[in-house]
Q: What sequence folds into this?
């Protein structure tokens, strides 16, 4: 892993949090660029079954829960800043060149470009959301304004489109380049006007909502929608009820955020008064690989824009998350819901 890799620190972290956490933590601290192929292989190769068992079982579940509880003391705003306020130019290099979506794309055919796959995703969202001119539409976690742009181009207006983000750099990007009604606001703690929105959607933001925050937030969103209002959501979640060991290493990527299980989400939607109209499953792996490839192909520019440590962090995060989905611990879901 190179002369700057601290093996004692790796062993210490691994003893507390497991080997994946130890590896991510040390790689993220290196001040020389990692070898991307080596990092990818470290996370994605299949090792001896005994090691694979250990990797998925250590530390034991009660300890994981305890450690996660400590990690949840971090505020959402701090966690979002740590992940997203890296450099908008860095994200311009990593993400697709057409929209700047930082969410899973729909790769429909072998060899499709990331730009085409994100176009497929944007079209699928338009189909599910059916936005119309004059409607009040809100995006929770609007990123760099990708989907707001798509919708405004479809309906020919952006007056009633709204977005919330907790990332200062995304907010500034909107002020400088997009000019949508985007607010720097925590959508979990926000107060929402009653029956204001015809549609509310989110793409890749619901992952930041902790399990105990899901039901109260859904209740608020339900009240904020007009009768029969639409909600469309895309997010990844744990496949099983039991929290996997990888939840710990995930804290290094998304500090203070915690996934819930698929079952938990479905029950919460129904309990809050939403009818599930449609649900589909996607595959995050090709998108992650495309972001990884963009960073590798533009390594010098990425380092110039975000610094060596961020280059290393995102190469490591991509490698780790690819394995997370490959292991079947999580899946990407898209829900079309309607207010009952
Ligand atoms: C993975 S990005 C997705 C951005 C965008 N939807 C897209 O498809 O590219 C997640 C977004 O959720 C926002 N976010 C996460 N938690 C939030 C919160 N509690 N309040 C407001 N925004 C939040 C982040 O700031 C970021 O804009």
A:
């Amino acid at each position: 892993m190179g002369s700057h890799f601290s093996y004692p620190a790796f062993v210490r972290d691994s003893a507390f949090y497991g080997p994946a956490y130890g590896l991510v933590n040390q790689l993220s601290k290196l001040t020389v660029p990692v070898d991307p192929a080596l990092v990818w292989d470290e996370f994605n190769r299949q090792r001896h079954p005994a090691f694979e068992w250990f990797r998925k079982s250590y530390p034991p579940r009660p300890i994981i829960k305890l450690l996660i509880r400590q990690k949840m003391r971090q505020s959402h705003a701090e966690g979002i800043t740590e992940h997203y306020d890296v450099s908008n130019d860095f994200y311009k290099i990593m993400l697709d060149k057409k929209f700047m979506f930082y969410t899973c794309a729909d790769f429909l055919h072998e060899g499709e470009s990331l730009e085409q796959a994100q176009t497929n995703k944007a079209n699928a969202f338009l189909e599910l959301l059916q936005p119309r001119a004059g409607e009040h539409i809100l995006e929770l976690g609007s990123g760099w304004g990708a989907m707001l742009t798509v919708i405004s181009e479809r309906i020919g207006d952006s007056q009633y489109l709204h977005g919330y983000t907790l990332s200062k750099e995304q907010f500034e990007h909107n002020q400088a380049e997009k000019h949508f009604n985007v607010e720097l606001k925590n959508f979990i703690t926000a107060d929402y006007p009653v029956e204001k929105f015809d549609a509310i959607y989110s793409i890749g933001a619901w992952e930041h909502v902790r399990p105990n925050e899901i039901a109260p937030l859904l209740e608020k969103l339900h009240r904020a929608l007009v009768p029969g209002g639409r909600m469309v959501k895309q997010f990844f979640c744990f496949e099983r009820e039991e929290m996997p060991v990888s939840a710990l290493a995930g804290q290094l990527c998304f500090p203070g955020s915690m996934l819930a299980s698929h079952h938990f989400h479905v029950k919460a939607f129904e309990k809050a008064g939403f009818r599930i109209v449609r649900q589909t499953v996607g595959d995050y792996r090709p998108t992650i690989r495309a972001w990884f490839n963009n960073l590798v192909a533009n390594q010098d520019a990425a380092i110039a824009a975000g610094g060596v440590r961020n280059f290393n962090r995102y190469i490591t995060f991509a490698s780790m998350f690819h394995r997370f989905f490959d292991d079947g611990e999580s899946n990407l879901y898209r829900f079309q819901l309607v207010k009952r």
Q: What stands out?
A: The pocket of S-adenosylmethionine is lined by residues 76, 80, 84, 101-103, 141-143, 146-147, 164-167, 170, 186-188, 203-205, 208 (CB under 6 Å). Strands lie at 137-140, 161-165, 181-184, 197-203, 225-238, 274-282, 330-339.
